[in-house]
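Question (not urgent): is this output format expected?
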Amino acid sequence: APEQYDLQTAALKVPPHSIEAEQAVLGGLMLDNNAWERVLDQVSDGDFYRHDHRLIFRAIARLADQNMPIDVVTLAEQLDKEGQTSQVGGLGYLGELAKNTPSVANIKAYAQIVRERATLRQLIGISTEIADSAFNPEGRTAAEIL
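Got this back:
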């Protein structure tokens, strides 16, 4: 059936990401505040695929900048101050992140996965722009498009 094909095609078009790696980074940061130093240069909030994960990472960064402890309670408080608690699933989701983190020891590897997938999404975006420009050059030469 044609609609079945469309669903399969749509499923193939999901941008690269790893929800598990994102969750492990965020959970790890709540479990070990020293982990912040290990991921600080690896990932930024924009590298997270999910919007709620971006918000959580930003709140963690603000706590770290203020030399505040980072845990489920302080993070929930920070998100509450910013009016974002409901957008991230509340205290329950933060608790799940911390509880389900496999190992803080591997946080750098998880952060690298998050960054790698973000880079792939950026490449897709750039190549899509190039393809769109090639299909509709608007008077530009191939060299100008590149």
